[in-house]
Structures are given as structure tokens and as C-alpha cells.
Amino acid sequence: MSEHGSGIGGDGDVVRGDRFSGGPARGFLSSLSADERIFAADLTVDRAHVVMLAEQGIIEDETAGEILTALNVVEVDGHGSLPDGEDVHAAIETSVVQKVGADGGKMHTARSRNDEVATCIRYRLREDVLDVLDATLALRKALLEVAESHADTVMPGYTHLQPAQPTTVGHFLASYEQAIARDTARLLDAYGRVNQCPLGAAAFAGTPFDVNRERVAKLLGFDAVLGNSMDAVSTRDFLVETISALANLATTLSGIAEDLVVYSNRGFVELSDDYSSTSSIMPQKKNPDTLELVRAVAGDAHAGLSGLLSTLKGLPRAYNRDLQRATPHAWDATDAVIDAVEVTAGAVATATWNEDVLAEASEEGFSTATGVADLLAMCGVPFRTAHELVATAGEANYDALDSAAKDVLDAPLAEYVPREEVESALDPETSVVMRDSHGGPADDVMVEGLSDAEATLVVHEETVAELAESLDAANELLQTEVNDYV
Predict the structure, then answer these.
(1) Residues 213/199, Cβ–Cβ less than 8 Å
(2) Can you tell me the distance from the alpha carbon of 188 to that of 194, in angstroms, rounded to the nearest whole number?
(3) 3-state DSSP: the chain helix, strand, coil percent, rounded to 5?
(4) What residues act catalytically?
């Protein structure tokens, strides 16, 4: 028997004791090192559970106070001071028992590591999702600020990487802000399903103790209790949903990064030195390295989602040890995507758009052809005929268009539309002004679109702030309750 008669001997812990404490597979089974991520979460979950046990009369107030005091010491000592164990949950409990004695083991009454770990993962993941949300909000703010300042900066638009139609830098950047707004909404939706409490489900079949699951959920800041106890410990669909949202966000970021890399190559935009690098041998080089890494993060996030789904797809119901390998996919994806969002925001905010180069490029490839065809259609020429006429001309000048009109319409172009209107439509700036349909790049429409985007951003900012405040309030409530015992 070891100190305080706890029954912990040798290298065993309170869960396995001596019987399962050795052997070559112990290290393979252990997740203690990786569990540092949920160390603080586990301590908080332990505190809430112990407070509830005392309130329900399942353990004595004095015992609760001793356990809570020991947990405070464990927190101060840190993850690195934990005894060897199979995981952070067992190591913390072992440490408490070493400090309190056998009664320390009462902290695990009416629960299993199955519902405990599921709760810890959700508790920590909430914070990570909020961090990602904060980063996306900052990126959207940067995109909107630059979009507003370049709402009138004409640039070439592309399809298939070929000159297509003139647009503006503001319209281009606002398109990505709108996409990231949807990514924000997906993360908020995922957060709602992450923020449900499994604790009290025990191993999977509930517990005979008179626990108050709703009280624990409130102390931990969860919105609701997961009802079915078997589902509560089994499901990791909240991880799938979160990583899926992260992978989608990473894909959006990869698109921004790719465009900026290409535009940097063409001289349209110059990235700040803070978001570039040079060659080790070619001193003239300025490379968009950070954005190239942003592109790569999408692959990491996609791999994490695929790995998680592959782990989950063949599992029978209730808890299986495979799930120990599932959670790191979420941590890795979260960390990588947060970094990528922050780098992208910085690159966007500090980039310099070369307006003269953009204006010149906007005239390349007869990019106003569609505008001329639209003008002819507005003057009564069937659009498909107008399309044929402009394609026959193949050049962005009036004489070529007039010649094509004589071939296609058997009449001079002036019989359908005045020359000055055609020449105006050939100008990229005029082409942009013409495109004043909802969502288009014309100035008045862009003002309205940016205003709507900013309003949505404010709503999302307020929502994220409220979620964070709710978690802070729960932490304060739990600390108040803990203070009554220690």
C-alpha cells in the first residue's frame, strides 16, 4: 500500500492499479502527452462534477473540499508534474488520491472516463472554435476595409484564367468576404452542437446515482445536456462537423492565396515584406511564401477530415479506444487554420494594389466584348446574334465591330446603336458602371453590398462576443461554487 493507503503501487495508477500497469503496450495506450491540450479542461470538468456530487449529497462537503483543494494544487503544479498514467484523466485522479488519500477516489463517483473525456474535448473545442471565429472576423474586416478603399479600382476579371470581363478590386475582395461570412456561419452552427454536455452518461448506460446533469452543464457553460447516454459518449460527429467547417474555410483561404500569388506574379499586387521572403541565391526575388503555405493548409485540413471519418466509419456503438486517435485531427486542423486565417488577414491588409498595371490589364483580351454584346441586345439585336457579331469582330475597336455588323446584320452598326455608345462600352470603366445589377461591381451597388456585409459582420461579432461572455460567466459561477468548499 502506498501513501494514505490509496492502493496505488509501483507504476500503476488509480484506474489500472498494478495488474495493467506494465508491459510493452503501456506506452502505446498512453495519451498523457497529447492530453496536455485538455489538461485545464479536465480540471474544470472535475471541479464541476465534484461540486454537483456534494450538492446532491453523493459525497460529503468535507471530502469535496479536500478534492477541490487538491485539484487547485495539481493546476498550479502543471501538466508536467503529473504522475505517469494512461491519460490525463487517470493521472489527475492519481495525483488527487496521492494528496487526499483513498477518499480522493470519490471524485470519480457516478462517471466514467468515457463521458469525462467527451466532455473535456467539447469544453476545449469550444474555446478553439471561438478563436477561429475571432480570426475570421478580423479577416473579414480587413477584406471589407480594402474593398471599400478600392471599390473603384478597375481590374481584369478572369474565367479559366483567361481575360473575361472588367471588374474592381473591391468587388473581387468582397466576393471572398462573402464566402468567409458563410464559413463563419458554418462554424457558429457547429459551435451550437459542440456546446452540449455528455457528463453524467457514465460508461454509456447512465448511473444509479442521483446526479444532476443539468447542473453540471450549467456550471460548465454548456447550452444543453446530450440526452441519450449511449449517444453522449459515442458520438464524435461534432468533431466531423467542426473539421468540415475548418476544411471549407481552409479551401476559401486557399482560393484567396492562389489569386494573390497569381496577381503578384502579374504585377497587379505587391505583398508587404512582412508576408514575403527572398531566395537564398537570387537576391532580386520576392516570393509570396506565406500565401503558398496558406494554400497547403487546405490539404492538411482535408486530410484531417478524411482521417477522422476513416477512424469513425467502422466503429460499433458506445466507446472504443479508436476514438483516442480521432481528437488530434481536430486540434491539428484548428491550429493550422487559425494561423492561415491570421496570415491571410495580414497579407490582405498590407498589400499594395498597382492601379496603373490593373487598368492596363483590364483592356487586354477584348474583355469588354460582353458589354458591347449587352449594349446591342439592349438596342433590339437578339443577344445570340449580338454575341456572334462581337465574336466575328474579335477586336476591341469600332471599325472591326462595324465591319462585323455589315456581315452579320447586313447593315452598318450605327443603324442599331450610336457610335459614341459603342466606344463608351469598349472602355473598361464604363463596362463596370454598366454592371449595376444586384451584387455587381458598379459603384452604387458596391456601396450597398459593402454596407450589407458590414451589417452581417457586426451581427457575427456580437454573437461571438455573447458566446465568449457566456463561457466567462460559467467560469465565474463555478469558481464561486468551488470557493464554498475550499
Answers:
(1) yes
(2) 10
(3) 70, 5, 25
(4) 160, 279
Contact 337, 301 (CB under 8 A): yes
Q: What is the pLDDT along the chain (486 residues), one digit of tens a residue?
A: 233 333 444 445 666 555 445 555 455 455 655 678 999 999 999 999 999 999 999 999 999 999 999 999 999 998 888 887 777 888 899 999 999 999 999 999 999 999 999 999 999 999 999 999 999 999 999 999 999 999 999 999 999 998 889 999 999 999 999 999 999 999 999 999 999 999 999 999 999 999 999 999 999 999 999 999 999 999 999 999 999 999 999 999 999 999 999 999 999 999 998 998 776 666 666 888 999 999 999 999 999 999 999 999 989 999 888 898 899 999 999 999 999 999 999 999 999 999 999 999 999 988 888 899 999 999 999 999 999 999 999 888 999 999 999 999 999 999 999 999 999 999 999 999 988 899 999 999 999 999 999 999 999 999 999 999 999 999 999 999 999 999
User: Rounded to an integer, what distance in angstroms lies between the CA atom of residue 140 and that of residue 148?
Assistant: 12
| Strands 224-225 and 196-197, sheet pairing | parallel
CB 372 within 8 A of CB 419: no
- Please answer whether residues 113 and 92 qualify as being in contact, where contact means their C-beta atoms are separated by less than 8 angstroms: no
Q: Are 141 and 44 in contact, with CB atoms under 8 Å apart?
A: no
CA–CA dist 212, 205 (Å, integer): 16
List of residues 6+ apart from 332 with CB closer than 8 A:
300, 304
Q: Name the burial class of residue 255, with classes exposed (0-12), middle (13-18) and buried (19+) by CB atoms within 10 angstroms of its CB.
A: middle
Furthest CA-CA distance within the chain = 107
CA nearest to 445, candidates 130, 97, 170, 101:
170
CA distance 57 to 306: 45
Under 8 Å between Cβ of 301 and 333: yes
B/e letters for 153-162, b = 16+ CB within 10 Å, e = fewer, are: bbbbbbeeee
- Give DSSP secondary structure letters for 189-250: HHHHHHSEE-TT-TTTT--SS---HHHHHHHTT-SEE--SHHHHHH--HHHHHHHHHHHHHH
Give the distance, in angstroms, between the CA of residue 422 and the centroid of all CA atoms in the same chain.
Answer: 47
**Do 220 and 40 touch, CB atoms closer than 8 A?**
no
